[in-house]
Amino acid sequence: MASSISWDEIAESLERAYIDALARHQQGTAPTEARVVADLRVRPASGTDPARFAAGCWAIGLDVVAVASPDGVGVAAAIAAAAPPELTVILGHEIASADGTVVGLFLTEDVPAGRSFAETANHIHAQGGVVVIPHPTTSQPPPAALLRAHARLVDCIELANPAGGPHSGPCCGPRVNSG
After folding, report:
1. What residues contact residue 61 under an 8 Å CB cut-off, 6+ apart?
2. Which of 4, 7, 77, 94 allows an S-S link to 70, with CB 3.0 to 4.6 Å?
3. Partners of 93 in the β-ladder
4. Does the reported pTM lie above 0.70?
5. 90 with 67: CB under 8 angstroms?
6. What angle do CA 119, 138, 78 make, to 5 degrees?
């Protein structure tokens, strides 16, 4: 008989793994060839200084950061331009579709807001991007029934996000967004 695990236990386990990976990286004990420490959705605060943001991500031990702002890929592009060469910045966009918030990663241009979920996802895919459904404690994603109906368009679902909810913990955002 398979044991069941609660979502709270999963969230705690993911948070513990994230914190442990960052600690190993910061202490220089992480195997550099085999591991990459990444935060796959960071939303910079409006007016964030790109150089300070990038430096903060690198300073806490990130190798890769996916930046998704509702202000478009230009925010991520500015951070990428200011980033140290060792930090990889994935260009993203947090899009307000007509059906709810959708995140596109690996984008080259902004995705128009206000379109249906399917149109938004198709626009992301047309750029070679990845469609991410954000965790509901940090955004208002499209309804579950709509996502099930269009499951083939969803590449990734964010299961945990330390920026909101009862399992909030140390993460890049608050440290690098603060003035």
Report:
1. 22, 25, 26, 37
2. 94
3. 69, 104
4. yes
5. yes
6. 70
Tell me, what amino acid is at 29?
T
What letter represents residue 57's amino acid? C
Helix spans in the chain (H): 7-27, 50-59, 73-82, 117-126, 144-149, 172-177
HSE-CB of 1 using CA atoms within 13 angstroms? 2
70 in Cβ contact with 94 (< 8 Å)? yes
Give the separation between CA 128 and CA 115, rounded to whole angstroms.
19
Phi-psi region of 89 (alpha: psi -120 to 50; beta: other; left: phi over 0): beta
Cβ neighbours around 113 below 10 Å, total: 15
